[in-house]
Design brief:
The protein is an alpha/beta fold and 295 residues long. The chain has helices at residues 13-19, 40-53, 72-81, 97-113, 155-161, 175-191, 206-219, 230-238, 243-258, 274-294; strands at residues 4-9, 26-30, 61-65, 88-91, 122-125, 149-151, 194-197, 223-226, 264-267, 270-273. The protein is built from ten helices and ten strands. α2 (40-53) packs parallel to α3 (72-81), α7 runs parallel beside α8 (230-238) and α9 crosses α10. It binds coenzyme A (COA) and magnesium ion.
Amino acid sequence: MARSWLFVPGDSERKLAKSENCGADVLILDLEDSVTPEHKAAARGLVRDFLAAHAARRRSQLWVRVNSAGSADCAADLAAVVAARPDGIVQPKTRSAADVTWLGTQLDGLERRHGLQQAAIRILPIATETPAALFAMGGYAQCGARLAGLTWGAEDLSVAIGATANQEADGTWTAPFQFARSLCLFGAAAAGVAAIDTLHIDFRDGAGLIASCAAARRDGFSGKLAIHPEQVSVINECFLPSAAELAQAQRIVALFAANPGAAALSLDGRMVDIPHLRQAEHILARAADQGLKRA
Ligand code: COA
Ligand code: MG
């Protein structure tokens, strides 16, 4: 399960080089908002070359953020990068599952044309960047196997609704953005995929990043977008289960194993029942998956 997803502006050779050893689970090579229209053509070439130069991936998966569905830029982005086999595509300004399906169809054709394995390239939509998209967050289950997760964005949404700020003075999200964040969680769970939290924009604020990671993991997100290499190790650390959580999960699983047929038991004076067992199993499975990834 990927925890850290670092955006790297696709037109910056310096940042592309810098990203190679930063330890991110995923690098998102960006062709959208961090690249000006005049630089997009050059960025496509740099991103394609970067993918080709890292064909044997080691530490980081390599994803590309293309431009929004149906735009001429999106078609040019896909034409430039798919042959170099990115692990996935981040789709900005996704309006509904139909945009993901549209992208999947484009990928079907390009994978076929380039002799690539069908449906190997996954999709992560940024699903809250337009106001109407919030009303379609329950529909992503129909996207099929390409859908890797859902993430959300606050900056474009702020502009769209005319908000002058999206965070309180203490860094917590204002009500409209808490709503978008929650919809991302519910929409991802309804579709059976991972929820990835949006980025912490104040990239020098380490304490704020830790707090937002802790809140995200508590609520069910399994990773977080990043914009600066220094955010990566914090995110990787925060989205691992703590030793105390692992120990507690092991105790719950052991308790149920020792009491076959029981659906509700007592542990330290509190009730534990089937949802707690499922949650404990989920924590252990995720830890095992992350252990394998590190090996
Ligand atoms: N990926 C790779 N390298 C990055 C990076 C990123 N996202 N952000 C910064 N770096 C590099 C810098 O190039 C610099 O390396 P150098 O010393 O070799 O030049 C080093 O990390 C330290 O950077 P720093 O000086 O602290 O930041 P900055 O002022 O250069 O850049 C930002 C700040 C916000 C412009 C930059 O972090 C960035 O471009 N982030 C991504 C933006 C983006 O993709 N937005 C779209 C998604 S919302
Ligand atoms: Mg944007």
